[in-house]
Amino acid sequence: MNFEASAHHGDYSHKENVPPSSKTDAPHARRTRQRTVLGVLSENEQHSRSRSEASNIKHQSSLIILNLVSCPSSSSFDVYVEEACEVVLAASGQEVAQSDALQIEDMRLLLELSSTGSYQDASGHSEPESSLLSEGMFSMEYAKSIYQHLRENEVKFRAKPYLQRHPEITSDMRVILVDWLVEVAQEYRLHSETLHLAVNYLDRFLSCTAFMKRGKLQLVGTAALLIAAKYEEIDPPDLNEFVYVTDNTYTKKQLVQMEYAFLKILSFMMAAPTSNQFLRLYMSISSVCVKTENLAQYVAELSLLEIDPFQRYTPSMVAASAYCLAAYTVNQSLWPDSLKDFTGYTMAEIIPCLKDLHNLYMTADDRPQQAIANKYKSSKWCRVSLITPPAALPFQ
Fold first, then answer.
1. Which of 94, 179, 288, 380 has the fewest Cβ atoms within 10 angstroms?
2. Which domains does the chain have, with CATH numbers?
3. Rounded to whole angstroms, how far apart are CA atoms 201 and 156?
């Protein structure tokens, strides 16, 4: 598609000459969580309670799992159960581990694990041992370290104001470009994280260069999406497909040269923290219903359109604001204590960004660029872009 004419001729997704592509035949399926009704609890509270109960069960079983990490195979040691309910694992007649008193059920599980190598349920069907080390246990154990690492890196990977360095480029042109990138990402079923990374690469590249020509801006955006797809996707679109989406405005050679320029200028530093990463981390700490989750992703994606004011905020702050705005819209709640303790962000710190994000959400339907809104009208995203935003926030 010719980028300079895109503002006048509609969006890319309705082109009649779109060729068949294997990428479009294999969309990335997204599994939505089932919701249950627990009295008069809100949907977010239901998820938080269920997650807490599951965590307690996992904690009880984790004592056993940890005792098995350094053990040899079941054929090389014997298990003895003493009257004091102490479990002693012996290998070649030498004691290698001893735990405190365990529950009878825990000992039963330990015996089964040591003898079969996998857990057998009541029906006799065995499950892989890896299933015991669930994603929830792993993420909760390392979540704090992951968060601290992302907070440190979000400063290093942050773009600086750059429009004054490029006289031929305006903020409106950037909005049109990001809107087009959303359409291309949708056409090739790319992940939301790929889009967030592409916008990060785009802004960082422009903040490190100067005097970019208007006619090259779409080439820059295409190269950013190409690199992000290579970094994030299992099966990224081919180079020919990225050339095609520009209506062959640029050649493969030009695109490869721009990709090389990107990697050189950004020093191959591609692992940029995004608001999408922070948002998913927040929702793993304080679970929300599917509608709230999708709405938070929608408003966070809207923030990609505007460098002013959202370039002033870090991705972790934008994610916190998106979480609060979605939670308030769906369940009249804001920032839970669990996230306040986990992130260190207070509600007072979030409010400025939250107000700006709310204003953007309020005016989303009035914008000429509707790629993000159209994306989230799909049943895959629970049609959250059709939800009426709150007229005001509780502190306004």
1. 94
2. 43-120 (no CATH), 161-272 (1.10.472.10), 275-386 (1.10.472.10)
3. 13
